[in-house]
Amino acid sequence: MVSAYALFTHPFPTSSSSSSVDSLFSYPPPPPSNATFRSHEWFPLLKLAKTPRPEPNPLLPQLGLRPNAQFLLQCSSNPVTADIGTVFSLLQAVGIDEKETKVLLEKNPALALTSLDSLRARIECFNSVGLDGLVLSNLITKCPNLLTAEEIDPFLSFVRHDMEAKLEPGQLRRLFRAADVRFLVGFEYKVGLLVRRGVPEEKIVDVLNKVNLYKALCLKSAEEIDRTITFLNRFGGIDLIVRRPSLLNYDLETQLAPRVEFLTEVSGGDENATGVLLGKLPAILSYTVDHTKGHVELLRSFAGLSDEQIFKFLLVFPNVVSASRERKMRPRIKFLKECGLSSNDIYKFLIKAPLFLGLSFEDNIAYKLVFLVKIGYRYRTRDMAAAMGSATRTSSDNLQRVIELFLSYGFSCADIVVMSRRHPQILQYSHSALEKKMEYLINDMGREIEELLAFPAFLGYKLDDRIKARYEVKRKILGEGMSLNKLLTVSSESFKPKTPAYVIDLNVE
């Protein structure tokens, strides 16, 4: 009988195999959960035949190998001596030098017992999935059994045919370097499980290319993967995995479940709300409970927010968990407190300007503070905080252009402060949109630009849908003189202009 470590036929038969992922649905039942660790139960090793030791091959001393590096393979009833010189040449062709070849032959005697056709076929299969050149030679040097282990054949066949060789070579390289080949057993079944549980076939390759294949599939049994998907179904299910495949890397009991449970606790036990949060940022589950708890505790103890307020803020800006607590969050909350904001004020501020806790100070916030101070805002005042909240929602470049635009129309810095105190949002509007509205106010409506001092909210209404539409309607009835405030602030339901009896329609025949 031939050793499973000794002889390999061509790993991929000439008969055609399906290249469609549909084949993932027809796999046999999964092996037991311990099959990965006891692969010999599924791939029994065959005993090497005991044969008399032949005379030493004269080629061995030339290669620097000890005589006991010569092996005899009992195939059927005929003894076959492996041609080590040819094996040596084949490995050299792969890029493995003489010294490394000697080490490989001593570390993995099965190389000398494996048919050259099988070795060549195995190398060609590695090449077909993108592993060649220096990458392949390094892999073989580190893991010599890649050329002889029987578990490699079904895995490479699956990658080559079912996955259409679309798995990234880098992924395969990392997998082969990290995993014992025994952990490849059942890989194709686990991929099929993901498809059957809802991962779209067109997305499966993308998912596999974004996970740690060793952690996500090889180290886990099919049952573990299935339990993870079942658990996540309460909070968004397979969609979370498709959007954030790395969730499969985490252990359900020690990582995923505790993280979800903590967020659910902050939500007040509302699993639906927790699902909404996870749907907005599945990556929030990448952070440990201790990490997220630290952010929540800072908002709770230092900012004075309630858990309800904290969770609502997380829904608005879940990426706050990526902000440094000591470098960003604490000093900025301290700034708001120094501006005189209460805990409730801070909550309202953060809901409107959540990025204030996440933006870079040196590259963003510092510039905006300088602009605001230069036009007349006093540092650490409530007005400054309100202006900073609006400035947070725009770029530094746009803020500068807005200020320059007002100055070009004759407003002073003090005027800009007055307008922005009454309507802070003018600091965040697009400078080009503001210019169009100001031009329309002056040229088409025939009004004075100074009217914006009393009613800066004019700049917040849509030009075509609100300002132009209403002005054209009212002008026909009331003429040019009308209050900008009354023109624009009345609700759409109340804005139902009626034509007076004395207005004659000259178009009626």
Describe it for me?
The chain has helices at residues 59-63, 84-94, 98-107, 110-113, 116-128, 133-142, 152-162, 169-178, 187-196, 204-209, 213-218, 222-232, 238-243, 252-266, 271-280, 289-301, 307-316, 325-338, 343-352, 361-375, 382-392, 396-408, 413-422, 431-444, 451-454, 463-478, 484-489; strands at 72-75, 78-81. The protein is mostly helical and 509 residues long.
Q: Using the alpha-carbon principal axes, give the shape.
A: elongated
State which percent range the strand residues make up. Answer: under 5%
The number of distinct β-strands equals: 2
**Which stretches are low in confidence, meaning pLDDT under 50 for 5 or more residues running?**
1-28, 32-82, 501-509
User: How far do the termini sit from each other?
Assistant: 108 Å
Round the mean pLDDT to the nearest integer and report it: 83
**String of helices and strands:** HEEHHHHHHHHHHHHHHHHHHHHHHHHHH
| Quaternary structure | single chain
What share of the residues lie within helices?
40-55%
Q: Can you summarize the main beta sheet?
A: 2 strands, antiparallel
Spatial strand arrangement across the major sheet: 1-2
- Total of DSSP H or I helical runs spanning 4+ residues: 27
The secondary-structure class comes to mainly alpha
Which radius of gyration do the C-alpha atoms yield?
36 Å
